[in-house]
Structures are given as C-alpha cells and as structure tokens.
Amino acid sequence: MSAATPLPDSQPAPRTDSLTQSRDYSRFEVWAPLARTATIRIDGAEHEMTPEAGGWFTLPGIAARPGQRYAYRLDAAEQWVPDPRSLSQPDGVHADSEVVDPSALPRTPWAGKDIRGGVIYEMHVGTFTPGPGGSGGTFDSAIERLDHLADLGVDAIEVMPVASFPGDRGWGYDGVGLYSTQCSYGGPAAFARFIDAAHERGIAVLLDVVYNHLGPAGNYLGMFGPYFTGAHHTPWGAAVNLDQPGSEEVRAFILGNARQWLVDFGLDGLRLDAVHELQDDSSRHILAELSDAVRAWEGETGRPLVLIAESDRNDPRTVTPTAEGGLGMDMQWADDIHHAVHAWISGERQGYYVDFGSTEVLQRTLTGMFEHAGTFSTFRGTPWGVQVDPASQHYDAHSFVAFFEDHDQVGNRAIGDRVHQLISPEEHAAAAALILLGAATPMLFQGEEWATAVPFAFFTSHDTELGPLVSKGRIEEFAAMGWDSAEVPDPQELSTFTSSFLDWEKVETPASARMLDWYRTLIALRRSEPDLMDPDLSRISVEILEHDGIVLRRGQVAALVSDADHEVRANVPHTEVLAAFGSPADEERIAAGTDGEELALSGPGVIVVRGRA
C-alpha cells in the first residue's frame, strides 16, 4: 500500500448514521482514510470506488444484493481484504465478505423483557450442543435445547462472542470481524433464527461483545484507518483509538455495531467485555455515549435494551446514569461475589482468592456487592474499588450480576474443571442458593444446573504459526502457578474442544436430575417470593452464625447455609427460606428450629422451608 496521507488533528463529524437510522445495507461503502484509492471486487468484477469527505469511499450506481461476495483492495496493494463492517464471512476471516441484509431475515414480533433481577444463562454456542464428527454446535442445534432453558426458568441467554474469529473453534474473544457472525455457528441467518426461537419461548437474548481489542489473526482494521493508538496500551497491545485523531469514526464504528445487534438483529442487550480496557480520555467516555444511544434506541424499538459491563474497577459509577456523571451501564458483573462464595465453599485461597474465604468476607460481598471497596487488595498490591451506597437512587442490587460459575472462572483454570467438581453436591446446592436467592441479578453457566462433569477448557484453532505460540504460552502460564504442564490440555488439540461438549445424555441420571430439580426450585422461589426479587440494597443483611454458618435475609426472607458438622438454627419472625448442607440429622435439627412449612428438599443436607409469622 502506498504511503498514507496523514490525518488532520481535527476530524469532521462522522458521516455514519449509526445513531439516527439503520445502516443502508444496499450501499457499498468503506471508511479508509489511510488510502488514496480503493477498489472493490464484487463476484469477481472489479470497480474503482469514489472518494468522499472524511475518508469514505462509495460505489454509486451499484446496489449491494444479499449473497454477493466482495472484498476491498487499498491503493496498489495486491491483497484483497474483507469489509470491516461485513456481516458474514462464509469462508473465514481472510476471505471475501458476503452481503447480508438483516431486515430480510425472519422476525417474530417481540415486546422485549426487563431482565434486571431475572436469571441469565451464559452459553457458548460451539460447546452447548455437540456437532457431528467432532464439530461444534450451531445456533440451529442450540434451538433444540431451548425448551430445557424455558423449563429451567431462564429469563435471558447471554451468548459468548460470535464475531468472526480464525478457524472453526474458540471462545470468541479473539474475534476480528465485529459485525459478522461466526460461520461455523451458522452465520447471521442462523443467529436470527436462534433469537427468534428464544423470543418465542419468552427468553431474551444478550450478546457478549468485545470492543477493547481484536484478535491477532485476520485483523485488517489497521490497513483502513486509525482504529488503534499507541497513546494507550492494553494487555493485547495498542489500544482501540477512542480519543486520538480519527477516533470519531472509530467510536461510530462501535456504536454502529451495537445498533446492528440491538436494532437490526433484535437482540435484547449486550455484555461488554473488560470495559476497564476501553481507555478513553475524551470529554465523554465511549460507554456513556453508548448508554445514551441505547436509551434512544429503546424509544425507537419500543423494547427495553440492556447494557452489562464486565469491569475490574469495582466502581458503582459504572452503573450510575450518565445524567449523574456515571457511565450509564444497566448492570455490571460483581466478581467479588463469585470469589467470596467460591473461596468459602471450596477452600481455595490462591491467586485472586487470597483475600476471600471467610464468612466475614461473604457477609460483606452478599450485602455490599464488593469486598474491595476502597480497601487493600493483596492480589493487586494496592487499595481497590469504591463502596456501594445502599441508599443510592441511581442503582440497586439488580444492577450487579452474581454467579457461581462463568466461562472465565471455569475455563481459566488449568484443566477447565468445573468448580462444582471440587465440592460435594450439598455444598454445590448451598452455593447455588446463595446466588439464586441473593440480591444481585443471578447468572448461571451452561451445564452448571445439572452439575455436568465435562470441563470447559480453553480451546483455539489458530494457524500453524500462531497456534504453537498459544499452546506454549498456556503451558508457561500455568507452570508459573505450579501446575504440572502435562495436565494442561493443548488448546490447539481438537480433543480439548470436543471434551467440552455438554453431556446432555447425563441430564436424567439421578444425581444430575436431583441438582437440576434444585435449580428449578430455587428459580421458582425467586419468582414467587416478592422479597427475593426486591432490589433494595438496604433490605439485605447477613448474620454470621457459629461454626461459619450464615443467614442471608432478604426483607422477611432468610436463606441459611450451615457448616455440615454443627447444629444451627434460624429464628426469623416471618417468611424464611433456608438452604443448608449437611447430614440428614442436620436437616432435622434445622427444620425443627424453624416451625415452618417445608417447600423443597434436594438430596441429603439441603432443605428449604417457609416459616410462619
């Protein structure tokens, strides 16, 4: 490519119409301010494009038709590259793009759903169902299991990233085609069918999107424009350009992507990956701009739309409205709740669990969402976080997402083993009760509800150059943590992927069926007991009992978890829901102390009762 014309310090306003109306999918156009000329190849025929203001190139007089294949060549370069805003890459991230018009995809009317406080279910499409001959699942095969989620009581599915990535298997966080849908999952038409099928069952669909970086293979954005900047750095290298020259169109690129998913595809929300790496020193943070745009799209679509942030900052400003100086997210993940429950139940204390594990920490996180709230973090070596205000008028308990398992907390273990495999079924049931009867918006990870024995490993399908580097890095990472390198599965091996397929044939085995029934019971209780859906942070309390037992109170509802070796009792004057793990004798002692009506029993040591006023 010939030398690029430098970008001026002051850029014109972006020409994209991402905030006001849907993209015109009949137009061939591309933003390439680093190029002097641009050529498009459509089904083999080449056309010179017309330069326009702001670094855009268009193709007047030729309309884009669904199914056409096309690619771009910039200046005198020999390489043809896909469209940065391609919706489909049928032959992979290095090949030609395919024209798709989402308005032509089937759509069933859907009024939307408020999912704050509801139950979210995190799903990885490729492993949620197995495919033939060792291939992964697809959106169409996932549709076949949606009745299971409806029966479970799930309110929303959170789909792990589907942006096109290299190869046919991976977690999706190395995606490079942010507007496109991974072809091995079925592409955009299959995704639309999945969304439609979920909506028909009353289930909202959220999508995990990654705006903080792109993967290393198939990332051609830097050839087109200043999508990245060396002014900021991230764990993946140069940061996405949100505040340097040319950033106006980069920000519009992100907003346009969000609009495509929420408006054009009819999704109900986005989960934003690691927003603390969206490094933005501009006067208006990209998250605040996105939040305000989504509020406008709610009015346009007549549906509630939700933004969920994964943030490492432990800062309630993330879920504070933009009008009050916040970033305007509807919810944020509360990792500290996971750490507190996990460390308390499992006994693990290494790494970032070092400050967790006691009942006192469990008490603080279940009531205040964060353990590190201006306090010293041993793992980080510095004070961390900001305290949540229980009297805040700008956010509440439903503004935080809690979970016992998720893709990170399982998949980033050396062998991808499930957390519930480390503990007894009674302890698993108790941990589930703390999450599903707790105050935050609960989230489950696929297969957790029936205590699946299959791992969720880290898997990739990179090329012969990048793949060995990923495998080597994975071994070195866990060797530094004391793991035997022989135990760490090679992410490039097909068997690492196929071993992570959910074992649906095991759902009806006695142990799995019992756990599944327990999860259904807890979710039904959450819906039926008004106190369990109360988002008021001031109406949450945790009492620490002897021998490390606790009682979690939600208004007039209490959830009790006890040490299996000791007798514990709860004396709550009104309605109470108790979850305890221990021996049958412990159950009898706990039940005898409640003077209540038994609601549910799930295996030895787990009991739920409602006390009398």
UniProtKB/TrEMBL annotation:
<feature type="region of interest" description="Disordered">
    <location>
        <begin position="1"/>
        <end position="22"/>
    </location>
</feature>
<keyword id="KW-0963">Cytoplasm</keyword>
<dbReference type="InterPro" id="IPR012768">
    <property type="entry name" value="Trehalose_TreZ"/>
</dbReference>
<dbReference type="InterPro" id="IPR013783">
    <property type="entry name" value="Ig-like_fold"/>
</dbReference>
<dbReference type="InterPro" id="IPR014756">
    <property type="entry name" value="Ig_E-set"/>
</dbReference>
<feature type="region of interest" description="Disordered">
    <location>
        <begin position="83"/>
        <end position="107"/>
    </location>
</feature>
<keyword id="KW-0119">Carbohydrate metabolism</keyword>
<dbReference type="InterPro" id="IPR017853">
    <property type="entry name" value="GH"/>
</dbReference>
<keyword id="KW-0378">Hydrolase</keyword>
<dbReference type="InterPro" id="IPR006047">
    <property type="entry name" value="GH13_cat_dom"/>
</dbReference>
<comment type="pathway">
    <text>Glycan biosynthesis; trehalose biosynthesis.</text>
</comment>
<keyword id="KW-0326">Glycosidase</keyword>
<dbReference type="Pfam" id="PF00128">
    <property type="entry name" value="Alpha-amylase"/>
</dbReference>
<dbReference type="InterPro" id="IPR044901">
    <property type="entry name" value="Trehalose_TreZ_E-set_sf"/>
</dbReference>
<comment type="similarity">
    <text>Belongs to the glycosyl hydrolase 13 family.</text>
</comment>
<feature type="domain" description="Glycosyl hydrolase family 13 catalytic">
    <location>
        <begin position="122"/>
        <end position="526"/>
    </location>
</feature>
<protein>
    <recommendedName>
        <fullName>Malto-oligosyltrehalose trehalohydrolase</fullName>
        <ecNumber>3.2.1.141</ecNumber>
    </recommendedName>
</protein>
